[in-house]
Amino acid sequence: MISLKQQTRKPTPSPAAKSSYAKVAVVIGGGVAGWAAARVLSQLGWRGELHEKSSATASKGHALLLMKNGLFALESMGVKDDLLRHGSQIKFAKTRVSGANNSEILTDCVCLPRNALVEALDCSSEIKLFHDSQVVGIEEDDLGSFIRFENGGVRRADLIVGADGVRSVVRQFVAPDFKIRMGRVQEFVALLPKIDNRFSPSQIVRKIHLPKQGLAAGIAPAGPSREVVWIQFDHQRWCEGQQSDRELLESILIQLPRAIGIRIRNAQAVHRWRTCDAVKLERMSRGNVLLVGDAAHPCLPFTSQGANAALVDAVNLGRGLRQHVMLADALDQFCSKSEAAANQHLQAGRMLEREFLSGKMTALPRSASLAAA
User: What digits encode the pLDDT tens for the residues 172-185?
Assistant: First the structure.
């Protein structure tokens, strides 16, 4: 016989059940930050949607470096081991500055195409994915916050995650006074099939810095058969008049080693990255609306932290939701952890930019703030 006490006893809630106080999350932005947040939310049992303004996501982008904190975050999401076969483990960085060679041993560093990372994070089998879904703003009424779309539609959710990049529409609601600072050092970047292993061995990043010319360039393996090439240049010194990107690039290539020029000229697409950062937000959330990734803390590429910090954001969000019953408490925990790291990356990026411009950079630049997530 079963007693009344046994019949009415409630089961002990699982961590996922504990975090299910909010049922629906809408993620805006289909880049690394958006898919990472969507994956973590789906793992917690949330019903979710991801809205991407373009018709595709994974095909965009070039390559990136995964560092210790990003790799730790991927491991906690359960996608690290499968992903690593698409990238190249980097063990050495060799930098030539003013005729002197500097070698550096690297640990926990992987270079891979951006689309491989986005595809690994893709959890569209668990959430609803909307392409060509343009968000024009977040608004608020007596019932709370809601999303307004370009087609006139609106959407409410228990949690709205703004992962829509540097020019975030969601940030206009969370922090309307937020101001972007354009970086003085810009980049040309290209991802292409590997040409010659002599110049890009499978475990080595090669870089040259020409401080008198305000230039640097590098080649890194980005998977079994691909490599990424980048050129960094002092925008104030190189951009005069109304040059096209092609004219500017050709004038720079004259100053660089022939191996760089061959690769850049053979690339199907060369992206000009107008770098930027911003003073850290006083707050990354407003009510049930949260910012992650570049929408919350854009940083200069010297730090190698754009994608890594976005992955850590997703992990921090998941931890907050697991550990707190109230959404406000979960978001408070997220903000306290992410804001501290974002400020360290900001300061590191600006210091590294100054070193580049002064000619003092002798190693592969990256943020010193690489603690595990």
Answer: 999 999 999 999 99
